[in-house]
Amino acid sequence: MTKKRILTGDRPSGPLHLGHYVGSLKNRVKLQYEYDTFVIIADVQALTIHFEHPGILKENVRQVCLDYLGVGLDPKACTIFIQSAVPEIAELTVIYSLLVSANSLRHNPTIKTEAQEYGLGESLSYGFLGYPVSQAADITFCKAHLVPVGADQAPVVEVTRKIVRRFNELYGETLVVPEIMIGDVGRLVGTDGSAKMSKTLKNCIYLSDPPEVVAKQLSTAMTDPARIHVTDPGHPEVCNVFSYQKAFNPDFIPELEESCRAGRIGCVACKKTLIQAVNELLEPVRERRRYYEAHPDLISDILTAGIKRAREVGAETMSDVRRAMKIDYF
Ligand code: TRP
Hints:
With 330 residues, this protein is mainly α.
């Protein structure tokens, strides 16, 4: 039996961080042999924000690819490719743009939040507003069954599901309605306690950070603000560091929760165990990154092969779509 497909990916706007890891990368690595896995480096989507500085993309694409290989995506099992190199995705985007109302995009919670975060206001472009449509093309060009993403992306993937249903209704069963899979940690807060890890807030831990940077970021991270003395009872439910412990040190949680509430473990000691756990997780990532950094030709080969396969699969889907829409003229 042929395997079901996964499609997921990231915008190459910078190196990936722990939030990306718990949201989606971890699930990809886990499922890569069970599913035929496609991973998109969505450079065109990154341009919806960075179109004035396209020069940042080349290095960021390389960094994201290093992050993928670093966390253990196996290029023998996964098709890793670059969005702009697969023109079928652009073709599908144009067709799908007919099947979604401009208003539903304006009201999409993710679009609204991100437009605000990036301060887009009146300058919000047609392309940014429409990125869920191009993401629908990313997901369906290979007829993916499953899309592992961070919680913030759920409303965007919902647009794909709507477009696919509409397409199939109008033109006959052609495309696959994908399922969404959210990482078990949901969203990872920033080290400063703000809602999200973000490059501009400098509250991230990158997968490529060396051990001392991880130690520094975590030892200065916000904890329960009501806790001043080591012996004060802690409130893990409001503590940033506790939410990290849940994500990266789950076995320690029952004991930690009890000692924190009882004021038996201080924040410094707690952070020390977290730093160790995160650095243990990242050590093999750093090692694999170092290997690929020393072999840049391998990265080009992996991406070239990925693009070739993505185009083959995309051509098949385009031909199904043309037939279904009766625009297969000759
Ligand atoms: N929008 C996603 C993000 O910001 C990145 C992305 C682009 C994506 N295309 C995709 C995710 C397709 C899943 C499937 O993280």
